[in-house]
Protein: Cbb3-type cytochrome c oxidase subunit
Amino acid sequence: MNTFLSVFVTVISLGTIFGCLALLIWCSRDKMGMEDGAPTGHTYDGITELNNPLPKWWSYLFVFMVIFSLGYLALYPGLGNYKGLLGWTSSNQQVQSLAEYNEAAETARTDGLFVQYDREMIKADEVFGAKFRELTYEADGTTYLAIADIAQNENATKVGQRLFLQNCAQCHGSDARGARGFPNLTDGDWLHGGEPAQIKKTIMDGRQGVMAPWGAMLGDDGVREVASYVLSLSGRKVDAVEAQKGEARFAICAACHGADAKGQTIMGAPNLTDNIWLYGGSRAAVEDTIRHGRHGVMPAWKDILGEDKIQLLSAYVYSLSNVK
Structure:
């Protein structure tokens, strides 16, 4: 925050604390010159006011809270831009990338700063790391169990499900059925392959799916004809003449989708014959894809989750369409 706001917050905070303390001291003094419990002469509706002091326990508790507040503000940030004697902060809030976070976390550890989020992550790894390893490694503790075998372990898939809900559900949905532009992980249809090793590689390294725009090359008529041919491959009713012309133009698509249009997992090119559509299967959606292309990104998670967690996550994803 800027200097003015920092000073304003500091003055308001300390002014409130010391103001309350001054009020307590003022109210604790006997200004009536009377003995404790003597009538003050103020009577209303048959009730007489007595000269009673503030309760001792209440006064002591109030003083304790003032001292506690000042101590807290000295140790922790709370007074404008003041950082506190302990160097505590909730997290490295200025970082904008994983690399910056790792650098900031290392600097905090070197300088002895207390970053709450970092400490909690370290503690969580100490507590749960052993459990992750127990579920993912062979008895020798050095070799990973096969993902297909982990998928048969109910406890392991429950942990994998929680990892999925925390990190993947934002795109693929809590039920893993995806949404427009985000693949359904339960139907057995895989852009980059559904074998355990392929699933793990996708999660570890991420994927980039690029469909080139063909509108400029094909023109409106060509886009419409190719769309008709593509729709016909999955049994849709289309104009036969348009579909025939589209088949001739499909040669430019076959390089990725294959001559039989069944796709190629090595390139992430989808199967166009199964009536499963990532960006929608209406004519308008298919024409839009052909005309403008698509660019999908699956981020890499290896530096965020680590391989042990990804092994469990891969097993859970694999189980969605392979374990009944």
Observations:
- Residues 168 and 174 are 8 Å apart (CA to CA).
- The mean pLDDT is 91.
